[in-house]
Amino acid sequence: ERLARIVDARVRVIALPENVGRSAARNAGAAAASGTTVVFMDCDCIPTRNDFLATHLHALTDAVASTGRVIGADEGFWSRYQGDASQRRKRQHAGGMAYSGSSQNLAVRTEAFRAIGGFDTGYRQYGFEDRDVLLRLACVGRVAWTEEATVRHRDVLRGRAIAAASSK
Questions:
Q1: Would you say 149 and 104 are in contact if contact means Cβ atoms under 8 Å apart?
Q2: Maximum C-alpha span of the chain
Q3: For residues 129-142, b (16+ Cβ closer than 10 Å) or e, as one string?
Q4: pLDDT at 1 over 80
Q5: Closest CA to 62 of 161, 143, 149
C-alpha cells in the first residue's frame, strides 16, 4: 500500500491475486521489469549505504550477478545468525562456491536471469531457491561477491520464540 502511493513513473507495484510463493512472486516482478538489471531484496531488508545500487551495478560490469552481505538489526540471536551466515557465504564464495549468497540481496543482469528461466517455482516456501538460482547463473557467467552492497535484515527473531514455535 505504501509503495502504491509513490508517484514515480519508475516505480510500479506488481500485486499478485494470491500467495504464489517467493520464487514465483520474484519471477513475476522480474518479468515486468524493463531495465537491464533486476535487484532482489526482501521486504524486511534495507540497504546500509546510499551507493547500494551503484555498488551492485559496478560489480555487474564483469559479472552476470552480484550478491552481498546481510546483517541484522540488533545484537540478538537472529542478527548474530545473519552475520555468521554472511561471513560463511563470503568465505565459501571466495573458495569458488558461487551459490553462496542470498536472494535477500541480489542484483542480476536481466538477460542472464531470463536466460536461466528465473527462480525455480518448485521452491514454494523459504529455502534454497537462492542457492539454485546462483548455481544456474554461475553456468552463464561470473557471480560477484559485493561486500559493500550490504542490507540490514530488520526482522528480529528471538531464540525462545523460535524454540516455542518449533515445539508446537
A1: no
A2: 48
A3: bbbbbbebbbeebe
A4: no
A5: 143
In a 10 Å sphere around its CB, with 0-12 CB exposed, 13-18 middle and 19+ buried, how is residue 115 labelled? middle
| pTM metric for this prediction | 0.86
Bridge partners of residue 50, in order along the sequence: none
pLDDT tens for 13-61 read 888 999 898 899 999 999 999 899 999 998 889 999 999 999 999 999 9
Cβ(127)–Cβ(106) under 8 Å? no
Mean pLDDT of 150-161: 73
Question: Is-contact 90 148, C-beta < 8 A?
Answer: no
What is the residue-wise DSSP string for 18-49? S---HHHHHHHHHHH--SSEEEEE-TTEEESS
What pLDDT, in 10s, does the model give residues 60-114?
Answer: 999 999 999 999 888 888 888 888 988 999 999 999 988 888 899 999 999 999 9
Q: Rounded to 10 degrees, what is the CA torsion of 159, 160, 161, 164?
A: 120
d(CA 118, CA 136): 9
H-run or E-run covering 105 = strand 105-109
Looking at the DSSP assignment, which residues form a beta bridge with residue 46?
152
